[in-house]
Structure formats: C-alpha cells, structure tokens
C-alpha cells in the first residue's frame, strides 16, 4: 500500500480530516509531501471505499451516512452467512489457527488501531475460508465501507469485548465444522454490531457535530 494512501486513510478514519472537509490534489500533495500520481491513485481508491467523493475538480471527505451503514450491514449479512456455510463443509484447520492467533493478538494495552484492523481482518479472513473469491471480495468491500464508523465505535471498551467474545464463538463453530451454528452466530453478531454501531453514532450525533463532523441520514 502506498504511504500516502495509508496516511490519508488514517487521517480520515481518525477524524483528523472531518466529513465535509474539502480536498484538492495539490493540498494533499503538500500535506503528505507526495507527488501527483500516488495522490490521485490514493484518492480514487479511497473513493471506492466511500471515504472521499469527487465534486467537479475537487474532492471532499465523505459524510457518514446512517442509511448507507444499514444497507452495508444487510449486504454483509447475506455474504458472511453464505461464506460460513461453505467454509464449514471442510474447515481448514491451519487457517482457523491463524484466526485464533489474530483474536489473541489484541489485549487491554493494544492501541485502537490494532483492534480496528484485527476486527476487519477477522471477517475478511473468515470469509476467505470459503474459498469463494466473490464472497471474500464482497466482505472486504463491506468492511472497508464501514471502516470510519467502526473506528468511532472502537472507543467503547465494553463493545470491543463483546465483539471479541462473539468472534471466538463463531470461530469455535467453524473449527467444529458446524455450519448451521456458525451461520446463526454470524447473523446474530452482525445484527448486534449494527445495533451497537448505529446507537453509538446516534448517541454521539450532538457531540460529533460539535467537533464539526457531519452525520447524514438520507
């Protein structure tokens, strides 16, 4: 990954760059001491992730859209449940062990960035156990679309702990090859994650707005 893309993404996810902030290619070049080609490539990739959007010759940091978040969760639900059923038909033990190690890589001293990345990797890697590239890409796209909203949710220690416990239960069912249980656990986890995330965003709407963060609902 290009350094400018990673740094720009982190600035948006951390809300250093706020929804609605206007961007220009020259401004990004100056800010990150980068040349035009990698800056333009980074902006197009981040546009695909829903983090920035084009407005004629200019760019801006995209708003957080609650309606879009609900739609992405519905998309996740269909794809992750399907991937779990396929994966459990022949659970690959080596990959399951790597997922277990991934969950164990976060503790109370881990920075928020680590929790955020590990949660994203868990769902993408779990879908990859299906061996279906289309399902894996769908889950990767959905998780990236939710990156900024999930970053905000990561402030909640209790929510992180619940999510990790749910991840562990899903992984245990996958290791047993119990597709029905794994699918049900994933469905409940996604529903619970959606409810937690939307509640966090709605509860914080006033505080976020005070910091200049635009949250929209179409």
Summarize the structure.
The chain is mainly alpha-helical and 218 residues long. Helix content is 72%, strand content 6%.
Please describe what this structure looks like.
By secondary structure, the protein is mainly α. Helix content is 72%, strand content 6%. It has helices spanning 3-13, 25-32, 36-48, 66-89, 93-104, 112-128, 133-145, 147-153, 157-176, 179-203, 205-210; strands spanning 22-23, 52-55, 58-61, 64-65, 215-216. The chain starts with a helix and ends with a strand. The model is unreliable at 206-212 (pLDDT under 50).
- Count of DSSP H/I helices: 11
Q: Report strand %.
A: 5-15%
Structural class: mainly alpha
Radius of gyration over all CA atoms, rounded = 18 Å
Give the topology string: H per helix, E per strand.
Answer: HEHHEEEHHHHHHHHE
> How many DSSP-defined strands?
5
- By CATH, the architecture of the largest domain is named Up-down Bundle
Name of the level-1 CATH class of the largest domain: Mainly Alpha
Per CATH, what is the topology of the largest domain? Four Helix Bundle (Hemerythrin (Met), subunit A)
Question: What is the first-to-last residue Cα distance?
Answer: 33 Å
Q: Can you identify the CATH superfamily of the largest domain?
A: GntR ligand-binding domain-like
How many domain units?
2
In spatial order, strands of the major sheet run 1-3-2
Largest sheet: 3 strands, antiparallel
What spatial form do the alpha-carbon principal axes imply?
Answer: elongated
Mean pLDDT: 87
* Parts with pLDDT < 50 across at least 5 consecutive residues: 206-212
Report the helical percentage: over 70%
């Amino acid at each position: 990954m290009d350094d400018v893309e990673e740094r720009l993404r982190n600035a948006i996810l951390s809300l250093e760059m706020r929804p609605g902030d206007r961007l220009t290619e020259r401004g990004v070049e100056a800010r990150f001491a980068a040349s035009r080609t990698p800056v333009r490539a980074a902006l197009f990739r981040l546009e695909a992730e829903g983090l920035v959007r084009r407005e004629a010759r200019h760019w801006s940091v995209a708003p957080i859209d609650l309606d879009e978040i609900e739609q992405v969760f519905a998309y996740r639900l269909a794809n992750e449940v399907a991937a779990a059923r396929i994966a459990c038909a022949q659970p690959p033990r080596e990959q399951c062990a790597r997922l277990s190690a991934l969950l164990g890589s976060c503790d109370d001293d881990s920075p928020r960035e680590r929790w955020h990345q590990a949660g994203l990797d868990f769902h993408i890697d779990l879908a990859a156990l299906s061996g279906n590239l289309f399902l894996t890409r769908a889950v990767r796209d959905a998780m990236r679309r939710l990156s900024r909203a999930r970053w905000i949710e990561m402030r909640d220690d209790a929510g992180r702990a619940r999510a990790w416990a749910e991840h562990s239960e899903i992984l245990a069912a996958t290791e047993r090859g119990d597709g029905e249980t794994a699918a049900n656990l994933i469905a409940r986890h996604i529903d619970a994650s959606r409810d937690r995330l939307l509640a966090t965003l709605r509860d914080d709407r006033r505080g976020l707005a005070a910091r200049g963060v635009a949250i929209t609902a179409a």
